[in-house]
Amino acid sequence: xxxxxxxxxxxxxxxxxxxxxxxxxxxxxxxxxxxxxxxxxxxxxxxxxxxxxxxxxxxxxxxxxxxxxxxxxxxxxxxxxxxxxxxxxxxxxxxxxxxxxxxxxxxxxxxxxxxxxxxxxxxxxxxxxxxxxxxxxxxxxxxxxxxxxxxxxxxxxxxxxxxxxxxxxxxxxxxxxxxxxxxxxxxxxxxxxxxxxxxxxxxxxxxxxxxxxxxxxxxxxxxxxxxxxxxxxxxxxxxxxxxxxxxxxxxxxxxxxxxxxxxxxxxxxxxxxxxxxxxxxxxxxxxxxx
Length: 290
Prior knowledge:
By secondary structure, the protein is α/β, with parallel strands linked by helices. The protein has eight helices and seven strands.
């Protein structure tokens, strides 16, 4: 017996979806039949993903669709406009995947003692505050969804993309890991508050994934050291994370809320992440989406 994950009729927003993990999540949600709002800071990247989805749907005869909703998620007013535009264009909001977050432009991994107040404020703002503001606007939209004839409302769900760096010591990434760990805790509180309203809230934590930014920065030796630290002896793939996101936001996971789901090829079992070498840390900054 085959069990299909069906998002037909559901309206989804994916932030930071112009590249990397967010792009794959948007594509897989559309493959499952969802109407997807593709957000990115750069309009051309969001539009390119929408075009990819349109081509895939046309080729497969699927029911999914996509629209581009570019916005800077670091701007409070832009976040409100992003969600309201999504609701207007899709007719509602059932699924939200908050993927924006990495090292802000000009920041780089460095020893804990080298971080100053502006590092903390900037990195925490981009990874914790941005995620919380997006979720607040998304939750408001979901709370406003209409009830059916029986007085019940369809389930809605919010999924945060956090980080496997929150599960073990993360040399040179203390600030980033702390901000992501705060998002994990936020998930539990939101799940308790929003659960009675039929809104599920979870976190998905990727291990190191060879996104465009990471692949451009990591040397072969660096990749080899990370691979060697995982029991599965490999990196995490974009589509693996996307498929997990599709599952966690589907009815197949409708009893799952307040959870932190780790997808890191077992890297957390090594307990201590291989430290960054100085030759690459300066390259890992400025990405809006993973």
